[in-house]
Amino acid sequence: MVFGQVPRLSGSICGGFAVSLEPGALVKLSAKPDCILQLVNLDEVSGSAWVRPWPLLPSHSATFTVCLSDLDQAQPVG
3-class SS at 2? Predict the structure, then answer.
């Protein structure tokens, strides 16, 4: 990846969806269909993505990691 380039997941990596996932995208994971998450960052080297619950809380919305393989069944939201 080039410095300053925004990381993206193409449809070929993301379960064959005809979308690109990039930071800021809202997704649902098949394991938790009632939970909407916002992608904060993608790290293809470590195979992880940083996400946080959506909508953001006024005080604090903690980020956590999920495996990129968990995004195979990710469904774009809105």
Answer: coil
15, 73 in Cβ contact below 8 A?
Answer: yes
Strand 48-53, strand 26-29: pairing: unpaired
CB of 54 within 8 A of CB of 36? yes
- The reported pTM is 0.70
Question: What is the tens place of the pLDDT at every residue in 11-38?
Answer: 434 444 445 678 888 888 878 878 888 9
User: What is the spatial distance between Cα 59 and Cα 74, in angstroms, rounded to a whole number?
Assistant: 27
